């Protein structure tokens, strides 16, 4: 891509390699967890979370391909928002599954379901399945946590929300593993409720991540001001640009919105909806003139720069 600095391009290339590693490790983790899951609800919930963890890296890799496509007549602003759409879809999947798993945990507690963990034969020896579960959970935690910590600085540098969400999920996987281990040990000591309680704790964490990501992604899809990576707060870039451009354009409004990892700024007649029907008709809108809100001045158009180079 020519519309981003070489340094950012290299950062995204490194992120792509890490995401491929993530997918490979996650597939192996999902297989291991499936075979040692038993009847533990905490294990089932952890397994579902690991399966859901495949969504962000897959969406990231797809959006990277789509966002580099050249603008067309149907999509004149390009496809930079492909990542925004993918971010919303992955966040919605997390939130929905988190809500379902919370319901499932509460349902198990109300029905007072008593899970059991028996023995299995391994190399001719009877082994408590709980030990295999704990070993599987330990394996499920280590690779994602390491990869997540490697992804976080890359996400912040490239301002990629999908990558950032994926990195946060990976880096916090130790909480899922610890909660599930507590639930398994609780079953071993006869605390039947520990398993469902641990599953509920994991589910709440899934729901929290999903809702936070949805809040940020919806703001971007609704042309909201650029948000910070880890919260729905407006990015400091907005105030800096408005403060610098405002004095040079009296009576005009400086507005910023996100387009994927990029930011588009426009200078409009304040309050930005003052384009009359007559003016809209004069520039070719004709009977659709009412739909034309404003004609903006582009401050920087990376798509145009790419096409001219």
TrEMBL record:
Membrane-protein topology: Multi-pass membrane protein
Pfam families named in the record: Cation_efflux
Subcellular location: Membrane
PANTHER family found in the cross-reference section: MITOCHONDRIAL METAL TRANSPORTER 1-RELATED (PTHR43840)
Native source species: Paracoccus albicereus
The Cation efflux protein transmembrane domain, residue ranges: 25-222
Alphabetical UniProt keywords: Membrane, Transmembrane, Transmembrane helix, Transport
Protein name as catalogued: Cation transporter
Transmembrane domains' residue ranges: 20-37, 82-103, 128-147, 178-204
